[in-house]
Design a protein that fits this description.
The protein contains seven helices and five strands. It is mainly alpha-helical. The strands form two sheets. It has a three-stranded parallel sheet with strand order 4-1-5. A two-stranded antiparallel ribbon has the order 2-3.
């Protein structure tokens, strides 16, 4: 999370980091799929979080987070590029297993989905943070923001 909001870019960055909350809250539809592949929905139009590289491959903070989660689970990950307004309906209809995107945490979204997968997401996030995974993502994708915070004397938390 961001420590202060004295810069106009800070609220935008803070909104993006709600992806962690959305990941934990929206972890899976009502029941697990039979396929061993975990289908993760996101809209690849929000750099540096969800985007495509020049070859059209999914990349960004959320994509790397999804891949790390798949590795944690020992499951293959498939990124499903969907319009933002189609993410929740796709989860509800079980077209995707998980949303990793910048969503606002609301009481309506809390404690929804597959409790077993929510538990796995929470365990993953704890382990990922402890081993410095978020610092690595910040170094890879958010260098400019980290530098701007340093220049303002504001701690950068991710």
């Amino acid at each position: 999370m961001i420590a202060a909001e004295s810069n106009s870019a800070i609220p935008k960055i803070r909104a993006r980091f709600t992806l962690l909350i959305a990941l934990a809250i929206l972890a899976a539809g009502c029941s697990p799929k039979a396929t061993p592949k975990l289908i993760v929905g996101m809209e690849l139009a929000y750099p540096p979080f969800e985007m495509t590289d020049p070859q059209g491959r999914a990349t960004g903070v959320s994509v790397d987070l999804a891949r790390a989660f798949g590795k944690f689970l020992g499951q293959e990950i498939q990124i499903q590029n969907l319009p933002f307004d189609g993410l929740i309906p796709s989860l509800q209809t079980r077209k995707i297993d998980l949303i990793i995107s910048s969503l606002t945490a609301t009481p309506e979204r809390a404690n929804k989905g597959n409790p077993e997968l929510v538990q796995k997401v929470n365990a993953f996030l704890k382990e990922f943070r402890a081993r410095g995974g978020f610092d690595e993502l910040g170094d890879r994708y958010l260098q400019e923001q980290k530098q701007a915070f340093r220049q303002m004397g504001i701690p950068f938390y991710f």
